[in-house]
Each structure stands twice: as structure tokens, then as C-alpha cells.
Amino acid sequence: MAQSSTDLTWLRGSSVLVTGARVSGLAVVQPLLDLGAVVTVTDSDRTALDEAANRGAAVVLQDELLSDASAIAEFSLVVTSPGFRPDSPVLAAAAEQGIPVWGDVELSWQVDLAELYGPRTRWLVVTGTNGKTTTTSMVASILEAAGIESVACGNIGLPIADALRRTPHPSVLAVELSSFQLFWAPSVRPAAGVVLNIAEDHLDWHGGMDGYVSAKARALTGDVAVVGLDDARASSLSAEAPAPTVVGFRLGEPASGELGVRGGVLVDNAFGVDVDLIAADDVEPSGPSGVLDALAASALVRSIGVQADAVQAGLQSYRVGPHRAAVVRELAGVTFVDDSKATNPHAARSSILAHERVVWIAGGLLKGAVIDDLVVEIADRLVAAVVLGRDGMQIAEALARHAPDVPVVRLPSGDDAGVTHGAEDADAVMRAVVDHAARRAAPGDTVLLAPAAASLDMFVDYGHRGRSFAESVLRLEAADIGSTRS
């Protein structure tokens, strides 16, 4: 599916509004200025707007912008940060005026097509409920091993607009995209895109499962569509994917047009005939989820002609990032694992099933997800559970229904001096959580932070939550282990 050229000269002299003055919003300011646009950035945080002003944009507080009913009409385009819902006041006002709304990813796509910063790049897009960052990082590692000028960007941290402005100019982008980003990027047609899996997540933002699935499916609109065949929802997208080439990946033996595992080796039977890639035991992270991510990454890079030896070298050199099933320490026979990135039940499931006996630390914002199915599946692995956060009670109640023999502690509670609700006390809550979890663990157990929920009710982000967990674990002494097991 060939990319078509894009003429963005209409933006010269046009007024463009950017909603959000954080990372993604700030990243689009320079490309818009380079296109000759007159840029205004709006945000509800006056401090955040200071950086936008430093980059050459006009700034206005969102409340002030909305106070003038005619102000939005002055803009020819609105470029939104991905977290803004379509019904947010500023975007709703733009829609009423018939003003087009692009996401930062959409703008980056159009800028790339227009060759503002160099020749067009090939986008390898990764989405799914879980495994996005690992898969994207694996793609980047393989591309590096292949000697291809590339960069990992998007939801992984580096905005795509910043990646396009890099020197030397990349020829391939490994792009992680969330459902929010895909929703606001209807024109993106990647060289290859993968939907890893789909489970309940962000249903409050998308208004239900149908909207969430529809957003994810936009990754499959380019030249090659890749779907996870072991996931029912992802697999179902293959039948309607508009890409001319559709392939799948699975943990079992691959049929023609698939990647899979045969005799303990990852095999490509889609872009070659029974091409061995790497031994499953050499993939990090270990276990089924790591192998699936490696298969997905292999499919994307193989679709653009990367050779098998580069796939092997890239996967062998890849190492798991922080807060993704990272072992913090072993103490008195108990292993403490930080998987703070497991921000929904589907991710927590994979994490818990990798261990035989688990003291589970869970809780936060469930974002509309249902926890019961997860609890039913993992109940026989749970030694105990410590729950925290705004939706901790929902998890505790599910445990009471489906795993009544599992001891559950809910924090914060009135029994813990100095621990109160509120983000400012998050680290104190985590110290108490880790203390309770350690007391209920025995040699051979794993104390696992796999929250199944987002962190923003208490912590700055999942990284803060993971660091808080690790710091609390490192305070423990051997005498703290198993002191109150029941």
C-alpha cells in the first residue's frame, strides 16, 4: 500500500491550537512552526504552559479559552494530545465549529509523508493491551542488530515528531501506539502493524469494548497486518483487516503464513519456509508472554526483509526494562518481583501464572475492567493478597467470592498508623503493603507487584509505584519474612 504525498502548505500562516502542554503536545510545536503555522498551546496547568511559551508558541489557559465562545473558531486545525477524549470541552467545541482534530501521531504521520525532515520512514506499529513496550523494544533491538537506522518511539516515551527530527534521519520507526493514539490517527498506514492481544482496558475512555477494539484495529490498515492467534479478540481481527498481507503468530507450530514454535525454536513460516529464528529458551523475558512478544517483533521485522541472523542477534541482546517482571531481590528464600507495568487484569494474569506460589500485591484504578475472571483463574496460586488503592475493595470482594481461603489485607486501613489516603502518602502505603506481604510469605514464594490496575490514584505513574515497591523491599530484613503467615 503505497504512501501518498501530503501537501501541508495550507498550514503556512494558519492558526493551530495544540491541546496539552506535556510531552506529546510540546513535541508538535516545532514541526508546526517549521510548517509556518501560528501555534497556540492550551492546558489547564499554567506552569506546564511556560515550556510551550519557551518553544515559541502562544499560550492560553484552557478555562480562559473556553470562556470565549468565539475563540475556537479562529483556528484552522486542532492537534490534540492522546489523553483528551472526544467529549472533552475543548475538542467538543472544535467539533461544533467543524474544525478538524488531529492527534499528535496523525500530525507526525502527515509530516513524515510531506518529507519535512527527510525521506519517508517505514513505520512498524505495535499495539495491544499488553506487551507493547517489550515488543517495540525487541523490534528496535533487532533493527539495530541489522544495521538499520531506526528508533523506538511513540507511547514508549520518545514522541514520533521528535524521532523524525533526529540526525541521522531514521529509515524505520519502531512505533508503540496506545488505543488513544490510534483513535486520533485515522490516516496512519504502517509498513506493518501488529495487534498483540486485546483485553478489557480503558473502557471508560472508549465508551465500551467495541470502541476499544476498533481503535486497536487501526494498526492493521497498512501493507502487512500481524495478529496474535492465541488471543481470541486479536485473532478475530484478521478476517476484516484491510492490509493486503495478513499473518499470525502463535505458541504452537506455525501453519503456512504464520510464525510459531516448533521443537523449542521460534520459526517463521510466513516470510520464509520454516526459517529458524531463535531458541525459545534464549528469549528474555522467559515464559509464554515473552515468546509471544518475540514472535510478534520477528514478524514485523521479517515483513520488511530483515534476515534471520539479525533477528536472533537482536533478541539475544535484548534485556527487559524496569518494572516489567523485574526481580528486585531474594530474601530468606522469597523472591520479590516488580511488575508495576501490569496495569490491567490481562497483564497481571501473565505475570502471576509465571509463578507457582504468589503473595499478590494488587490495586489502583481498574478503569472499568472486571477482575473476577482473573481471580478465578489464579486462585490456586495465591498464598495471600494485599490490595491497595481506590479500587482495592473491588479486588478484595472478588477474592472473597472466588478465593475465600486466601488471606486478604486491604490498605490503607485504620490499623496502620501514619497511613492515609492521598497521593502524598503513596510511599507510606507501599511500605505498609510490602511489610504485610513479606510477613505472609514463606521460602519458595514470590511476592509479586502485579497491580492489575493503573497507578494514578496514588502514584505519579507506574514507574513511581515500582520504585516505591523496590525501595520498600530493600528495607526488609530476613526476620520480616513469614512472621504472620496463616
Describe the structure.
Helix content is 34%, strand content 20%. It has 19 helices and 20 strands. The protein has helices at 23-27, 29-34, 46-54, 62-67, 89-96, 104-113, 132-145, 160-164, 179-183, 203-206, 209-217, 232-236, 288-303, 308-317, 345-352, 372-378, 392-402, 426-439, 462-474, and strands at residues 15-19, 38-43, 58-61, 77-80, 101-103, 122-127, 150-154, 172-176, 192-195, 224-228, 245-249, 258-262, 265-268, 275-279, 326-331, 334-338, 358-362, 382-388, 408-411, 446-449. The strands form three sheets. Strands 7-8-6-9-10-11-12-13-14 form a nine-stranded mixed sheet. A six-stranded mixed sheet has the order 15-16-20-17-18-19, with helices on both faces. Strands 3-2-1-4-5 form a five-stranded parallel sheet, sandwiched between helices. Helix 7 packs across helix 13 (288-303).
Net shape: globular
Our Rg estimate from Cα atoms comes to: 23 Å
Number of distinct beta strands: 20
Separate helix tally: 19
What is the average of the pLDDT values? 92
Question: Class by helix and strand content?
Answer: alpha/beta
Strands of the biggest beta sheet: in what spatial order? Answer: 7-8-6-9-10-11-12-13-14
Fraction in beta strands: 15-25%
Low-confidence stretches: 414-423
Helix content, binned percent: 25-40%
Note the gap between the termini. 61 Å
Largest sheet: 9 strands, mixed
